[in-house]
Structure formats: structure tokens, C-alpha cells
Design brief:
single chain; mainly beta; Immunoglobulin-like; seven-stranded mixed beta sheet; 5 helices; 5% helix; globular; disordered N terminus
Amino acid sequence: MVLSLTPYSLSLAAGRAQQIGGVIIPHAFSLALQDGMSIPLFIHLEGSHDTRNDQRIGTAFIWLDGGTLRVRRITLEENDDSARVSDATREQLTQLADRAFNEVLAIPLTGAAQLHLSLRQLLLQLVVKREALGTVLRSRSEDIGQSSVNTLSSNLGYNLGVYSNQMRSGGNNTSSFLSLNSVSALREHHMMIDGSLYGIGSSRQDNELYKAMYERDFAGHRFAAGMLDTWNLQSLGPMTAISAGKIYGASWGNHASSTVFDNSQSATPVVAFLPAAGEVHLLRDGRLLSVQNFAMGNHEVDTRGLPYGIYDIEVEIIVNGRIVSRHTQRVNKLFSQGRGFGAPLAWQVWGGHFNMDRWSERGKKRFSKKDSWLAGASAPGSLGLFSWAATGYGYDKNAIGETRITLPLTGTLNLNLQNMLASDRSWSNISSISATLPGGFSSLWVNQEKTHIGDRLRRNSVDNRAIGGTLNLNALWSKLGTFSMSYNDDRQYQSHYYTVDYYQTVYSGSLATLGLRAGIQRYNNGYSRADTGKYIALDLSMPLGNWFSAGMTHQNGYAMANLSARKQFNEGAIRTVGANLSRAISGDTGDDKTLSGGAYTQFETRYANGSLNVNSGTDGYVNTNLTANGSVGWQGKNIAASGRSDGNAGVIFNTGLEDDGRLSAKVNGRIVQLSGKRNYLPLSPYSHYDVELQNSKDSLDSYDIVSGRINHLTLYPGNVAVIEPEVKQMITVSGRIRAEDGTLLTHAHINNHIGRTRTNGEGEFVMDVDKKYPTIDFNYGANKTCEVALELSQARGAVWVGDVVCKGLSSWTVVQQAGAEYES
């Protein structure tokens, strides 16, 4: 009976099987296909016999409709590193709906692309020719997104300066200032207050508020309202005809910092086609500049690391160690500030009430304080290599237009023009040309400014020209040195001066570098005799931050011998100390002293960085000045200070480390040292930051960062993020453990807060201990425990504790003889 039923069963199963594209589909699989299933979509270059370089670009949902296999939809999942299909091919893929495969399981899309299904491997291939591939271009702009700090926080920057001049007669002259810049923020909203105190503690004490303004710069648009002085208004565009004063008003536009434009890439993309995964080599004049790896497809090469300029490079495509193609492309990479090439038109409209300060010009004109309206609009942009900025504004019956143009004429020649035209017949023209001459050994710049002021503008007329350059003779011969020259002619006030400097490396070796410096300056203002100064000096630089200089100076009709020394330090509060001494050796010094000198130091402390200088001049005066600056960050219960002032946003590291414990933080690849319980690091706003906490290479301490080790932050002005990691300070403890009677605990498992170890035959052990929980315990018998309390308050890194006693265990021998259960 069994034998008779078996052939029937086989014939029934064969009858249920289905054949599609030459592949027999089992009944169970056919039922699954009728319900539909998702399979990966890979891109494959036509003519390639290797599928290892195929890249996944999405998923496809297929289903069986009767005897026909169809694609219901395709979802693309392209990323920045994978191959990209052309727009026409992408449109065909995304619009597929219930499209049927033909008899060979293919779906033609365009003349250069088709889908091919492999039922045996259950994958779908997009088989393309080169023309069906799009180009993976690098983004030139990025919206930084929402702030990572959702609570109220603040950054306060401070800058202190104190100056004292002790006169020969015994009198003194002292002045000081304290500048404060406060930015408080709630997410992307921030309030900025900027002001200064002058003459602190004196009868001439004064204060000035420069800015009090609300601002929200988010998603590529900026709104600001409040008070600011005209110095701060210059950031909106070229505005040279605005007089000193304060403005109470508002501005709105898309000239924003929340959208970051990358202008470090070549304006003309450098594109490479790779038939399979491989390398792209960039060469200039036969020299290798860059090596980059890409998958199959058309990719824009990263040109951020290439030099600025306009030049040709050779692009080599290498697959499996063999050069498959080589061609030349043009790099167009010119330095430009702001939005960069290809950025959309930026604009900003602004206006309000203008309170103009009193103004006069050497007795020629005099204007009193005055209130007026102010309104204007500004816009920067670029067109190919040509970048520009324009501003139109009006106030106090004046209509003014200004433009600024930057145009690279060649790869080595740049032209800058700035013009102003006002309704009171005022006009201004500022032009400058900079050039790098062929051969790479010289550069030249020329500036000219001509300004004529009419009846109403509160500004001086200008007629000035300047020329300068550098001649690097080292390009011809390493012993010739470098010349720098400049000449300035102010025809408005009949004054001119020129300077010439020369530097040459006389000797360079492993122990020291000796350099020769010489220079001359001549000044003449048309109302007094010409003043000429000359100097020559030898500079000796030695390892470990040592520097000495000896030379001669001739000025004011007599010659002086000069000695200087400087020492730099890599650690500690004092980073630089220096001193100088001068003595007249020839000529008539008149009332001047024959001996003068001074000393200075630069310091970097936890709360302030700055310098202290004391100098006794030839005129007999003793001058002393102190400068210090830093920042304070605050969020909630967390407040910390720093001697740095890198920006008006930042991060508070609340590590909780005791004493002088040290960690380091890697912030976007830069290493910052942290010490103690709390540290503040000011940072630039409108940026993303990747922060990773690490053990410091400069410390013997070892820490286990349990949580909060890696953080990703987006900071706007005034945002102060708080990072509170869970940190365990690890001490490697070694010693011998004994019972109360002195017997050694041999071959026993001992425990602590974070782990366990086993003693050897001599009762010796080595284990890591959390410094906050310096206790070792041993379990034996029926829930019996003995403990060792370690003294680790002064321990760093590793410590030998010698013989320690486990309190609560009378004898190890008794435990072994009694046969009690214990950890062994």
C-alpha cells in the first residue's frame, strides 16, 4: 500500500510546482510570493563579471500575480558613499508600480538601465551602463539643525587691561578697562549684551554699552532686534559712511550663520568615474597630493586638502592595483570668506532709530549730536569666480550706496574694489591688487584709497596709497634670505613712511638655529624733520623653548646695544618669561637714560590667560601693564570658568574628579586637558561637536568612564552643554592578604566593588580597585565575610599595599581544617 501511494504523492507535488523564468518554484515559496516579500536592490555595472563590487542602493517589494511576477514598489536608500543613479533612472525606479518581469526576469527602464531578478539568490540587480550613473556630489551647505541644549544657559567673556606709567617726577598715570560680553540662550534664542567699564577705581570712571540685542538665527534665516553701535553694524555689509553712534532697530534676512557653507572645495567639482571599488590619486606637476577611496560610480573628489588657486591636476583611477584611466581636470579653488561659490543670494533688511554722536574734523567741520531714522538693505553673492557685496541705506537726508567686488583675474592675481556714492556728492574708491609672481619666490600688493566727503556725511576725506611685497630669495639659494618692503604715502596729511626688513638663517642644526635680522624705517609727516630708525640683530633659538637675541639699534640720533632672552614652558601657569636690556653706546642721548630694560611673562591659569609687562624706557618712565581674559559658563546648578575665550558657547565637564585628577577630551579631533571636578571649555557657536572623554596621557591615573564617554552636540550662541560622565578612578592594588592570626589566604577568591581575583600560593594578589570604594572582602562559611579597608587617598595609578589583614577572619588555617565552604 505504501509503495502504491508514493508515486502518487510525487506526481501531486510536481503538479503543484510552478516554473517562472526557467526556475521551478515550490508550492510553499509560491504561496509566500503571492503574499509579497521584500528583497535587496543592488546596482551592477554592465560588462562586469564580478558581483563583489555591487552596492546595495535600496529594497524592492515583489509579488506573484497568478503566473506573473511583478514589482509593486522600489525604495531607494542611497547614501553619500554609494553609487548614485541618474535623475532619469531614479524617476523610472520610484514610479514603478505593479510592473511585470518579462520571460527572462528583466524590466527595461531606459536604454542604459534595466532591472534583473535572480530567483535563486533572491536579489534584484539594477544593471546600468556608465551614462545611467549619476554623480555623488559633496554638499556645499548644511543646516546645523536644532540646539542640543534645551535649558537656559549663559556664557560670559571678560577682558581686563590695566596700564600704569610711573613718571620721573614721581607722579603716575593709570588707566584701565574691563570689557564684558554676555550671551544668554534658550535653545536657538539668545540675548547678547556687550559693554565696557573704563578708568575703574579712578575719578574718571566711565562705562559704555555697545550692544543689547535679541537674536534668533535658525534654519537659514536671522532675526535680530535691540540696540547696537555702528561698529557692530559693519558685519551686515560694506557701510563706510555710517558715523559713530547707536542704533535702535531690527533686521531680518537669510544672511544667517545657522546654514554653514563649505567654501574649501573647488568651485568646479573634480569628478572621477570608478568601474569598481578603488582609489583616486590626485597629482600636480608629478607630485602626489591626495589619495582617496571610493566605491563604484561617479564621485566628486574631496578637494579640501588641496592648495588654493587655479591650476590643473592629473586624476588617476586605480582598481585592483592597476591604473584603469588617467585624465586632467581643472581646480578652481580661491579663498573666499562667507557663503562661498555657488551659494544662493543672501539678503538682509534692517532699520530703526539712529542716535548720532558729536563729530568734528580738525576745526574744518563740526556736527552736534542728532537723532535720525535709518533704513537699508544688504546682500552678498557670487557668480562663478566673481564675488560681491552691496548695501543701500539712508539716514539724515543722505542716500548711500556701496559695493565690494572680489575678482581673481588669474590664478596668481586678485583684484578687490570697494566703492561708495552718496547723495551729498560724497564718494569713495578703495582698490587693491595682490599678486604672487612666477617662480614662487615673491609676492606684491598695491592699495589705493581716495575718498571725497561732501556737505553732510560725518567722515574724513582720504587720499592714501601703499605698496609692498616680499622677495623670498631662498627659492634661488637657501642662504640668500627674505626681503620684505612697504611704502605708504598719505597725501591728505602730507606724510609718508617706508620700511625694509631682511631675515636670513645663518645656521640651522639639531642643537640651535641662528638667524640674522636687519631693518630700516623712515617716517616724515611734512610738519617735522624725518625720523629714521635702523636695527640689526642675531637670534639664537635652542631646544626646550630657549631664545636669545643680540643686536644694535640706531634711532633718535644715537646707537644702542640690545640683549633679549625668552624661555617657554609647555606646562604650568607660567608659559613664557622674558627680559630685555638696552644700553646706549654712541651718540648724544640728550635727556634720555643710557640704560633701559624690562621683563614680561605670559600666563595661562584655570580662570584667566594674559600677560604682565614691566619696562623702563630711555625717557625714565617705568611702564607696567597687565592683560587678562577668560570666560564663565553657566547652566542650572553648574558654573565653571576658563582662561580661554574661543567663543560664546561651550561645554561644562562635570567629572567629579577628586584632587588633581586629570582626564582629556577629544573635541572634533583636538585634545583638551581636564583637571579637577569641573572644567569649562568655550567653543565657537553654529557648529557641530563630537566630544569623547579619554584618559589623559599626561597623568598616571587610570579611569573607567562607565557612561557619558561620547557626546554629539550642536551649539548656538549662549548654549552651554553639561557633560556629566560616570567615572571610576582605577587603582591597581597589589599586596598579600592575611587572616587576623597572620596566616596567609592562599588560593582564595577575593572581591571588591568592581571585580574579583584569586590569590596565589603566597597569599599575593593584584586587582583593580575603584578609589571611591577601597574595600576588599572574602566570603566563607555560612554567609560569613571578612573585609580589608585600604588606604588609597594618596594613591595614583598603581600601589603596593604590602601585608593587609582581613578583619573578621580569625584564622585561615582553621577555616581550611574545619572544611568550611569558601570561595577557592
